[in-house]
Amino acid sequence: MKTKKALFIGGIKSGKSLNAEIYTLKNSLKKPIYLATTEFIDDEMQKRIDAHKLQRSAQFETLEEPLKLYNAITKCDSSVLIECVSIWINNMLYHGFGFDEMKRELEAVLALDKTVVFVLNDVGCGIIPENRLAREFIDISGKLSQLIAASCDEVYHTIAGISMRIK
Q1: One Pfam family of this protein, by short name (predicted)?
Q2: How far apart (Å, rounded) are the C-alpha atoms in residues 149 and 26?
């Protein structure tokens, strides 16, 4: 099976994660890797994590890595689903990394000869927030989504559980 890159982008709770999981399973020769990026946990976030674990059940091998995507993926010998790039951007900002470091990390991942499926929240349809950090997050997310989409073989936009291929 030829390696490929795909992006599932959509609003929060749009169904993009489930559709990305189904896509990854269909495009994997063996049990795929679910690369979980969530780092900051409170009770509400733990409930979200538990729901995602239940949703994917034992169909994926879970690998947790909040920052170093490239290093983690190079060790994988199967398809990789990155869930999610938005949380990864948050983690990188929290740990003091800037756009250039994030761009280099994703460019390295995109250059790998592996099937990688990216999940990303579409944050560009809202208003410009008054908070500087929120604006920075939105700007970085928008630029990185363009980078990922340009390099992917397939891009899907998800609304109400329906993923439509736009590339």
Answers
A1: CobU
A2: 20
Q: Binding site for GTP: what residues are annotated?
A: 10-17, 53-56, 64, 83
Q: In angstroms, rounded to a whole number, what is the distance separating the alpha carbons of residues 38 and 85? A: 10
The pLDDT tens digits for 6-62 are 999 999 889 999 999 999 999 999 999 999 998 766 777 777 767 767 766 688 998
Q: Where are the domains of the chain?
A: 5-125+139-165
pLDDT in tens, 131-160: 998 899 999 999 999 999 999 999 999 999
Q: Identify the CATH class of 5-125+139-165.
A: alpha beta
What torsion do the CA atoms of 92, 167, 75, 1 make, to the nearest 10 degrees? 170
The amino acid sitting at 2 is K
- The binding site consists of 10-17, 53-56, 64, 83
CA–CA distance, 99 with 91 (Å, rounded to integer): 12
Residue 125: its pLDDT value, please? Answer: 79
- CA separation for the pair 58, 143 (Å, rounded): 34
Instruction: For the chain, report the end-to-end CA distance as a whole number of angstroms.
Output: 20
Q: Active-site residues: which are they?
A: 52
Q: What residue type is 115 in one-letter code? A: T
